[in-house]
Design brief:
Jelly Rolls, 4-stranded antiparallel β-sheet, globular, IPNS-like_FE2OG_OXY, metal-binding
């Protein structure tokens, strides 16, 4: 048992300082991030959710979903002090002693609460430069007892944040639905009693960032992702018009990412954006991604109102359970999983 715990400690990047790049993290030449080609000063859509002009908010959300597949929101209603606490308690967790963290380690993707590394350690041939704590968050009272008890404030801070993020997600669904010309409640009702989970991501300093990824290019299989970024260190990049653009942290903003299911429900009008995380050599970086996921058994597909003679259904109907299994059985950077569900 002790040997197993020791092996788990060695799996995690956050248990040591790395002066040289271990071979299992080095990408083949053709798959490297080519950081010199990234556009560093692109205009990223920002939506002010406190604007009194509701029509303007809905229009801005629709434009961003269509052109970029993501946007930043400001004045979103989640308290700045809570956001700071979430990042701080996340850092505290990853600074715990190795043997404390090893208790939570698992490489089983089906496990609802686990500390792991890379993306899917069992399947992949090259690893990604990240450790992450995966937490299921809804219903909270069902999952919180199994969350880490150390740091002592972890459960309370993260639990409060999860509740606030869920409410924000539902407000965004309303704006997204309206921007498509659907009833405000359409997305929320169609997606059913939604699951919610979270990844607290930790990207340590990396000796050679140009050889690896924190996470390679992928789209999110869920409906909506709300990302809290480190406001000191950039790392998120999104694909826009064939170029990778850096998403520079804006104080107090959250990044909203359209997932595969909203692309399907919008009949392809809105885009689930390809995005990736890169790492750097002088700073560690944290991010907290919250995922709203459709109920497993709910039937998904293009909204009937968006299917016309001029724009027939792009995707067939399917359950989220079917989609998610397909997504996890592939490599992260293969073709868009939605391609497998085209009509």
């Amino acid at each position: 048992m002790a040997a197993e715990a020791e092996q788990q400690q060695h799996q995690l990047l956050s248990t040591a300082v790395h002066d040289t790049m271990p071979g299992k993290y080095v990408r083949p030449e053709s798959q490297r991030p080519r950081l010199d080609l990234v556009v560093s000063d692109a205009r990223i859509p920002v939506v002010d959710l406190a604007s009194p002009d509701r029509a303007a908010v809905v229009s801005a959300v629709g434009d961003a979903c269509r052109t970029h597949g993501f946007f930043q929101v400001v004045n979103h209603g989640i308290d700045a002090a809570l956001i700071m606490s979430v990042m701080e308690v996340g850092r505290e967790f990853f600074r715990l002693p190795a043997e404390e963290k090893a208790k939570l380690y698992s490489d089983d993707p089906a496990k609802k609460i686990r500390l792991s590394t890379s993306f899917n350690v069992r399947k992949e041939t090259v690893h990604n430069w990240r450790d992450y704590l995966r937490l299921h968050c809804y219903p909270l009272d069902q999952f919180v007892p199994d969350w880490p008890s150390n740091p002592p404030s972890f459960k309370e801070i993260i639990g409060t944040y999860c509740t606030e993020v869920r409410e924000l997600g539902f407000r965004l669904y309303e704006a997204i639905s309206e921007s498509l010309g659907l009833e405000g409640g359409y997305m929320r009702e169609t997606l059913g009693e939604q699951e919610q989970h979270m990844a607290v991501n930790y990207y340590p300093q990396c000796p050679e960032p140009e050889l690896t990824y924190g996470l390679p290019a992928h789209t999110d299989p869920n409906a909506l992702t709300i990302l809290l970024m480190d406001d000191q260190v950039a790392g998120l990049q999104v694909l826009n018009d064939g170029k990778w653009i850096a998403v520079n942290p804006q104080p107090g903003a959250l990044v909203i990412n359209i997932g595969d299911q909203l692309q399907a429900l919008s009949n392809g009008k809105y885009r689930s954006v390809w995005h990736r995380a890169v790492v750097n050599s002088d700073r560690e970086r944290m991010s907290v991604a919250s995922f709203l996921c459709p109920c497993n058994s709910v039937e998904l597909g293009p909204a009937k109102k968006l299917i016309t003679d001029d724009s027939p259904a792009v995707y067939r109907n399917y359950t989220y359970d079917e989609y998610y299994k397909k997504f996890w059985s592939r490599n992260l950077d293969q073709e868009h999983c939605l391609e497998l569900f085209r009509t």
